[in-house]
Design a protein that fits this description.
Structural class: mainly alpha
Number of strands: 2
Shape: globular
Strand order of the largest sheet: 1-2
Distance between the termini: 7 Å
Radius of gyration: 17 Å
Oligomer: single chain
Largest sheet: 2 strands, antiparallel
């Protein structure tokens, strides 16, 4: 397989995902990254095969809270900058505070019609990317 073509296919996929995510957060890159980091971190401990259906989201009680500091550090961003994004996301009802333990992306945020549509589109894009990579591998 040509590693150059494979890299282009992967880069195209990632760019498309970024554009889609930015649209969901009014073009704010940091908010997009905060939501991605928080959502990923909340569910990182869960078995991969546990939530396999496209519309299957982990319940709130199984999501591990993360602090503003943890997300700020993971993104190499100033604490205060990230904290302001958390305030906005919490006010919008997308995330919730879990006492002193931190925040979670709410299950309801993963079940909105817009989010479910985005998940289905992403699944289709992944399938197309895998087929394109497999076709390259057969060459």
């Amino acid at each position: 397989m040509s590693s150059g073509i494979a890299a282009l296919i992967a880069a195209d996929f990632l760019l498309d995902q970024l554009v889609t995510s930015l649209a969901a957060h009014d073009g704010d890159l940091l908010t997009t990254l905060v939501m991605a980091a928080l959502g990923s971190g909340n569910c990182a401990h869960l078995p991969v095969d546990r939530f396999t259906a496209l519309n299957d989201a982990p319940p709130n009680h199984e999501r591990r809270p993360l602090t503003v500091r943890q997300i700020a550090d993971s993104l190499s961003q100033p604490y205060e900058t990230v904290r302001r994004r958390f305030v906005t996301l919490e006010a919008a009802g997308l995330i919730a505070r879990r006492g002193r333990h931190g925040f979670i992306v709410l299950e309801a945020s993963d079940r909105t019609p817009e989010r479910l549509d985005a998940i289905r589109r992403t699944h289709g894009k992944i399938q197309r990317m895998v087929k394109a990579l497999q076709a390259l591998d057969r060459r």
